[in-house]
Amino acid sequence: MRTHWCGELRAEHVGQTVTLAGWVHRRRDHGGVTFLDIRDREGLVQVTLHPEDQPEAHQTAQDVRSEFVVKIEGQVSARPEGAQNLNIPTGEVEVIAKTLEVIATSETPPFQIEDRIDVGEEVRLRYRYLDLRRPEVQGRIFLRHRVTSAIRRFLDDEGFIDVETPMLSKSTPEGSRDYLVPSRLYPGRFYALLQSPQLFKQLLMVAGFDRYYQIVRCFRDEDPRADRQPDFTQLDLEMSFVDTEDVLSLVERLMVKVFADAAGIQIEAPFERMTYNESMARFGIDRPDRRLGLELVDVTDALKGTEAKVFSGASAPGGAGIAIRVPGGGTTSRKELDSLAQVARGAGAGGLAWLVIQNGGVSSPIAKFLTDANVEALISTASAEPNDLLLITTGPKRVVQTALGVVRMELKQRLGLTGDPSAPGYWQPLWVVDTPVVEWNDRESRWDSVHHPFTAPFEEDEHLLDSDPGSVRAKAYDLTLNGIEVAGGSIRIHRPELQRKIFKLIGLDEETVEQRFGWFVDAFRFGAPPHGGIAGGIERLLMALTGSENIRDVMAFPKTSMMTDLLTGAPDEVDEAQLGELHIQVMPAKE
Length: 591
Prior knowledge:
Elements: E1 17-30, E2 33-40, E3 43-49, H1 55-61, E4 69-78, E5 93-104, H2 121-126, H3 128-131, H4 135-157, E6 161-162, E7 168-169, E8 179-182, E9 190-193, H5 198-206, E10 211-219, E11 231-240, H6 244-263, E12 272-275, H7 276-283, E13 296-298, E14 319-326, H8 334-346, E15 353-358, E16 361-363, H9 372-381, E17 389-396, H10 397-415, E18 429-433, E19 438-441, E20 446-449, E21 476-481, E22 484-491, H11 496-505, H12 510-523, E23 531-537, H13 538-546, H14 576-581
Parallel strand pairs: 3-5, 6-10, 12-18
Antiparallel strand pairs: 1-2, 1-4, 2-3, 4-5, 7-9, 8-9, 10-11, 11-23, 13-14, 14-17, 15-16, 15-17, 18-21, 19-20, 21-22, 22-23
Helix pairs in contact: 4-6, 4-13, 7-10, 8-10, 11-12
């Protein structure tokens, strides 16, 4: 039907007869001559229709409107001097139309098919197929294609094989909630849509496949967040007879290749590494965005002797005082400071104190509770200068670190500290390593896995599993990029006795283990190789590459922030007959 894409025509095509097919982006009439901008996925090109040369085609063009689907045959011609449009790749040429055929008409769309449109997300998602026509949105989808293609080429060359694992399996809820699928043939029983192929890929290592990968759809019933969707795509890979260094080296080479081939971005390996404890101490988060500065400072000692109740948490057992220095932040308004305090309280802190550094002292509502020694120590410890702002909170160390980590990311948005993607040092991949195997859950009074219960501990720490579980380090590694966790993995447990010990540590009795994971642990009785791997979120990587703040920006058909599909109307009710076949009765929703 066509010989060329609209967006591929250049000066070297002048004189050629071409056939184009696409959408009418815009129609313009000047002195009897009609101009149509025709758009397809590769871009747009100007088509010119002269009434005296192509009267039939020119007449047809009078009834054409935006988003009509048309087919055009004509000759590529150089645009006259002064009429070139250097803002588009095809701006040096035009197509002088000989014929124009309307393939499909269009009603007036609810918004213009332009990159910069002032229209709400609800409207765009309701008409997502129109939103996807916008060049900016299409560009993200094409980038996604280039990323996954580069991943496949690299892993194929490295000896990995692509193996599909089940999407319907047994519910083993150890993290997020499962999406359950009722069985028609087995009333009262359910499949679960897999949150990850974790167990199956480990079994592929037991089966001897050695190197596996899959770009796979996963499902998690999670609460709404900007970087979460109920169904998402991840790169899943696993390797046998490897240690941590083998996995990290391979993933680094993969990332270098993907960045170069898919986005034309050069990053260097090896990537920097940081322990989990250092990341929490410096940034209050295990996926730090190091471009911002604004590192956390421990000011516990500087607060000794103060009478301010707001700082009492620093002297409590296990407590600490943590601060952030905001250079030049002394002009921050009281309203903004109160708002930051709300952010800190929402993240678990008891409050947020502030001090503005002045020549010879500080300005703050709590300054009167600080001794000269306190003030001098705070300024020295935080390396503060006049007109800097210090934000301080106290309490249990990990709680206040985490709370100020959230405040730090809020400051990132408010101060616009994301940087220039073309500037040196903008791309900062970082491995966060040595995560604890477990952490204590105060609410439920039990140990929880930090990664997942299949993560191997360091051999030299195994003896502490009985006496001091919280200090046991995991052979885990998370790849972060500019504040986004793009991948996470570990060396796995391959000894059945150790796997059962970890299950017991996190509160699973033998009966529960047998019911949920017996089929998995049994496989290790028949010779399991040491193995490890990683899983990377495709959408998370694309968020980093495009600078998007929301995962919906890089998905073709996303759900809303409330996990609904405005295009199809899902989730929706089903009729009683269908529920009857599944032996399901719907209970009224609770208030």
